[in-house]
Amino acid sequence: MNAETKTELSVKQAVPFFGVSNIEESVRFYTAGLGFEMTEKWIDKGKLRWCWLQHGGAALMLQKSREEVRERWAREGKVPGIGVSIYFICEDALAIYREATARGIKAERPFVGNAMWVTSMSDPDGYKVFFESYTDVPEETVYSEPEG
Which of 31, 32, 59, 129 has the highest local Cβ count within 10 Å? Predict the structure, then answer.
């Protein structure tokens, strides 16, 4: 394809899609625990099956995995989120850490890596979620709670 016939692609956003075993538990983790807002949803036969969660300019989708898929994963010894990570770049990863832990989410203590504060947590299906924010604090600094 030459430059004259090349079509402009209008990619606007990449949105992770997580198949989950218990959508209600996952929605609680992301909304009540991490502050996401459910902006879209699909209700099928009175049950939530899919949703779009938004936090600032970032989003992710959750869908309850079909029973036969979950059974196959169990037979094969697979866990849906193992090995899957998503990084959210934010204004203040420390604030997200403090808010998440205050809401009962088990989060890794923040540290500085690659000139960014980094904290992480695993959702109910094992998907690893990271929050990072730029800082000028020295590399490998570990966050300590303010005294007070």
Answer: 129
Q: How many domains does the chain have?
A: 1
pLDDT tens readout for residues 111-133: 999 999 999 999 999 999 999 99
User: Residue 1 falls within a domain, yes or no?
Assistant: no
Within-domain flag for 63: yes
| Cα 77 to Cα 72: distance, rounded to the nearest angstrom | 8
125, 20 contact by CB (below 8 A): yes
1-11 confidence digits (pLDDT tens) = 455 555 677 78
Q: Is residue 11 part of a domain?
A: no
The two structure tokens encoding residue 78? 């697979």
Exposed, middle or buried, 101 (CB in 10 Å: 0-12/13-18/19+)? Answer: middle
Supply φ then ψ for residue 28, to 5 degrees.
Answer: -60, -45
- DSSP letters spanning 2-37: -TTTPPPP-------EEEES-HHHHHHIIIIIT--E
| Residue 2 counted as domain residue | no
Q: What is the pLDDT of residues 11-32, one digit of tens each?
A: 888 999 999 989 999 999 999 9
